[in-house]
Amino acid sequence: MDDPEFLAEQQYLDDDENFKYDLVSDDLEGDDDGANDDIVDAFTTIKYNNEQYEATQPLSHSITEVRPSVVDDFIRNFLIKAGMKTTLDTFNTEWYELQSKGKLPNELSVIVPDLYLRNEDLDQQARQLREQVEKAAEVAHRAQATWDKFRRERDFHRMHHKRVVQEKEKLINDIKRLRNHMRSYEPAIEELKFRHQAAIKEKMLIRLERDRLKTRVKALEEQIALIQNPPVPDDTPPKRKATRSVRKHAVFPADDPGSNPFLNMEFDTTAFETFQVKKSYKGHLNSISCAAFHPKKPIFATGSDDQTWRLWNLADCEVVMAGEGHTSWLSSLHFHPHGSHLSTSSGDGTVKIWEFANGKNTHTFTDHTQAVWGSEFHPAGDFVASCSMDHTVRIWDLIAGKCKQTLRGHVDSVNACCWQPFTANVCSASGDKTVSVWDGRTGLCVQTLYGHSNSVNHLKINNRGDIIISADADGVVKVWDIRMVAELATIDAGKYPINQLTMDRGGHRALAASDDGTIKVLDLDNFTQVSELRGHEGAVQCVATASNDAFFISGSSDATFRIWGK
């Protein structure tokens, strides 16, 4: 075994103040020389031993070696570690004094046994290990607390999960049971719906029959009064009455600018921006695409993409009558000026005329080759104008039951049409970005208005017949003067398309049904947007005002209609 190796610590004392100096007498000079010789011999011997030791070591041995610790170094290290500086100074003084005089015994120059150093190292390692064990115990204690907390949370969440699973299974079973229960009611509901529709039709027919009976009773009362009070006979021979000729076709009224009663009327501005939703009702199974008010009674009609139209009572939103017959979505509907008929147009390319007295369809016009976007009665009631995706506008003669005139000139779909009040002129809005005015007698285009930068979706003319408003797919509304054939103003109503327009009686306010789900209120006097009304969840497809401007109705893609009022 190799000899044990020790680490030697050498301390340099630079502070002269803490070191004590003793006087040396003159008679010790001889001894000093002897001591100096002994020191030189000791250093020479140590150096020789080191050289011999290094020569015997292999070349691969490390250059740095640990010098074994002697007794005095061991004591110095002990005193330094204990902080006994005064004792250390005294020890060094006496040790070096005795060593210089050669009075130290040989047994004090031996190397300190390795056992003490190993014990010291082991004590230090033991202290470090105790500290590590204490830290590990603390960490383990905290980990144990955290683990206990997580275990409790796990148990809680597991119990909660089991409870949720049980509730979910229970709800699923309840839903299945309710579905089965509802399936048993579906036939009864369908039967009740059918009975309800039949009862509504019977109710309407009974009302019409009641009105006819009232008229007949009144006529009978007049006849009875004549029988009871016969008139005085007149001896003059009766004049021969001319035979009444039955018309076979309708005739446009003569052009008379003064025949329009609205020319001499003034109406107050209707503050549509103050209107609020009075009623909201889901009236159809699909999007509501068109609506119109009855000209004389508190009744309005709605048409839908579910291929049906319905008449509603304004007071309680009760269905008065329903009509089926179209094979595709309805695009528009319009009441006869007398309120006795209703015209509807559809995506199936047909225009139908419905009579309320008999509750049936009286005319079906099929000359259009593509979907029909709009239809409207003439103010006289003998004609209906319709516009189609086949680029044409057709005028239908209700007396003859056929097409009287076809207006051709647009190069794209004709999206809307309306009559100029109390004239034979028809206005049309097209996908070719133009608005045209046609003469219904000759079938020629009288005026064409340019200015829109996108497809014109709808147009409306005021009751005086001199102002047209039109809206396009860019959300732009333009105001036109028919007499000047010029654009008066442009109103920006948002970045979404405008689907339909309407105006109040005086032509001061307009309503625009927008694709963003709002209704824009436009001021036609100042050419600005006043407000926007919100309420629908889907795009607003149609809007219509009552004849007295007290209400207006809006229909939306959410299959609901809303009645607005003050």
UniProtKB/TrEMBL annotation:
Region annotation (Disordered) ranges: 228-253
Alphabetical UniProt keywords: Coiled coil, Repeat, WD repeat
CDD domains per the UniProt record, alphabetical: WD40
WD repeats: 281-322, 323-364, 365-406, 407-448, 449-490, 533-566
Coiled-coil stretches: 112-223
SMART domains: WD40
Biased composition (Basic residues): 239-250
A Pfam family reported for this protein in Swiss-Prot or TrEMBL: WD40
InterPro entries the UniProt entry points to: WD-F-box_domain-protein, WD40/YVTN_repeat-like_dom_sf, WD40_PAC1, WD40_repeat_CS, WD40_repeat_dom_sf, WD40_rpt
Family annotation (PROSITE patterns): WD_REPEATS_1, WD_REPEATS_2, WD_REPEATS_REGION
Superkingdom of this protein's organism: Eukaryota
Keyword Repeat assigned: yes
SUPFAM superfamilies tied to this protein: WD40 repeat-like (SSF50978)
PANTHER family noted in UniProt: SPERM-ASSOCIATED ANTIGEN 16 PROTEIN, WD40 REPEAT PF20
Protein name: Sperm-associated antigen 16 protein
